[in-house]
Amino acid sequence: MIQVYKFGGASVKDAKGIKNVCNIINNCQNNLVVVISAMGKTTNAMEELVDAFIKQDQTHIKIAYETVVNYHNQIVNDLFESDDPFLAQFDELLNKLWQRVQQHPGLDYDFEYDQIVPFGEILSTQIVSTYARKIKINNTWLDIRKLIKTDENYRDAGINWGLSSQFVKSKIKFDDNSVFITQGFIGSTINNITTTLGREGSDYSGAVLAHILDANSLTIWKDVPGVLNADPRWYPFAEKLDEISYPEAIELAYYGAQVIHPKTLKPLQNKNIPLFVKSFVDDQARGTVIQSVELSGVEVPVFILKKDQLFITISPKDFSFILEDNLSDIFTFFSKHKVKINLMQNSALNFSVCVNNVRNVSKLIEALQKDFVVRYNENVELVTVRNYTDKAVDKVTIGKEIVDAQLSRNTARYVLKCSEWKF
Ligand code: ADP
Ligand code: ASP
Ligand code: MG
C-alpha cells in the first residue's frame, strides 16, 4: 500500500511541530511519500526578499535575508546539537541563497521569483528529513525538481505529465526505502530551471505524486479538524464535514475555500484516489474524506470568504456594447497579467469582475485603461454560500452594503463592502 502525506507550513512552523510531524510519519505502517511546504510563513518572507532583490534595495535584501536565516536558525538550534554535521550543510544552503540575491536580477520578475522562493521548501525538507533520520526514521530526501517536470510558465508552471511520470516512477521505488521526504510547490523545466506551481501549490504536488504512483490515498494534514463549512478564523460556528464528493470539493476549492488548492482534486478524481483532510494536532481523529460518493454528502450551507478583493468595472470608451470581440480582448489582458477572475458579470455596456488585489492588478488596470473606461472599488470581499438558505444568506449579508450579487440554484455569491463581521 502506498500513501502520500502533505504537511503545510503551519505543521512545521517550529521544532515542536517538526517533532509532531515526525511522530505522524513514524506511525504510518505503509510505504510513504511525504511532501512538505516551507516552514511557517517562510514563503511570504521569501516574497519580500524577491521584491527587495528586484528593486535592488540592498538594505531590505539584507533585512529579508536575515529574517529567513534567523527563523530557520532558531529551529535548527532547537533540533540539532552544535556539532551536528547537518549545520555545515544548512549553512551552505543559506550561503547559496545569499549568493543568489547578490547577483543582478533579470527583467522577468516571475523567473527571478522561481529561482529564490523555492529555497524555503529545500530548507524545510532538509531539516525535517535530517531530523527524522536522527531519531531513527529511515528516509530518503528527494529533490523533486529532478522528478516533476514543467513548462516555462514561471510562478504558475504546468506539469509535463509524461516526463514527470517517467522520472517519479523510476526514482520512487519502495524496494529498499519505505519513506521518501520531498518538496511540494516546485518543479523544473526540461532544462532544469526551477519553476513553481502557484502559491499554496503543495497540495497539488501531493495529488500529482499520488496520481503517478497510483497511491491508495493522499492525506493533507492541517491545523483544522478537516474541511469545515466555513473558515473558522472568520466564522466561529464552523462545523466539520465528514464526507464530500469530488465535484462538491472542486466547487468549494474553486470558490476559494483556502483549505484545499483548486488543482488538487482532478488528479485524484481521475484515479479514484481518496483525499483525507486531517488534523496534525489530533492525528487519530477522523477528519474529512473526499471521494467518489453518490450524493454530495454536504447538506449544511457552506460559506467561503475571499478577502482583499477588487471589484473592477470595464466599459468600452465609445459607448459600444460589450460583445464577444471586446470580451476576448479583455480576457487576453487578464491572462497576460496573470490576474485570476473570481466572479464576473456583464451588462450591455459594462463588464465587471472581482479579482484578488495582487501586485499585478495595477499594471492590468493601466493596460486596460488604454482601450476602456475602468472604474474600481477597493476594499471589497467576496462571499459565496453553497447550499444556501434564506437564513444562511441573511447571516452574511445583513448590515452589509452589497456591491454585486449572483444567484444560481445551489450557490449565492455577494460582493460586499468590507466592515466588521458580527455573528
Ligand atoms: P497549510 O498549512 O496546509 O498550507 P493553510 O493555512 O493553507 O494550510 O490552510 C488551512 C487553513 O485554511 C485553516 O487554518 C483555516 O483557517 C483555513 N480554511 C479556510 N476555509 C476552510 C474550510 N472550509 N475548512 C477548513 N479550514 C479552512
Ligand atoms: N510554500 C508554498 C506557499 O506557501 C506552497 C505551499 O505551502 O503550498 O504558497
Ligand atoms: Mg497553505
Topology:
Elements: E1 2-7, H1 15-27, E2 31-36, H2 42-55, H3 58-79, H4 86-102, H5 109-116, H6 119-134, E3 140-141, H7 161-171, E4 179-183, E5 186-188, E6 194-196, H8 202-212, E7 217-222, E8 243-245, H9 246-255, H10 265-270, E9 275-279, E10 288-291, E11 302-316, H11 324-336, E12 341-346, E13 351-356, H12 361-369, E14 372-386, H13 390-397, E15 402-407, E16 411-417
Parallel strand pairs: 1-2, 1-7, 2-4, 3-4, 7-9, 8-10
Antiparallel strand pairs: 5-6, 9-10, 11-13, 11-14, 12-13, 14-16, 15-16
Adenosine-5'-diphosphate binds next to loops.
Description:
There is one protein chain. This protein has 13 helices and 16 strands. The protein has 423 residues and is an alpha/beta fold. It folds into 2 domains: 2-222, Carbamate kinase; 302-417, VC0802-like, CATH 3.30.2130.10. It has an 8-stranded mixed beta sheet, sandwiched between helices. Strands 12-13-11-14-16-15 form a 6-stranded antiparallel beta sheet. Helix 7 links the parallel strand 3 and strand 4. The structure holds adenosine-5'-diphosphate, aspartic acid and magnesium ion. Magnesium ion is lined by residues 8-9, 200. Aspartic acid is lined by residues 8-9, 37-38, 43, 120, 184-185, 199-202.
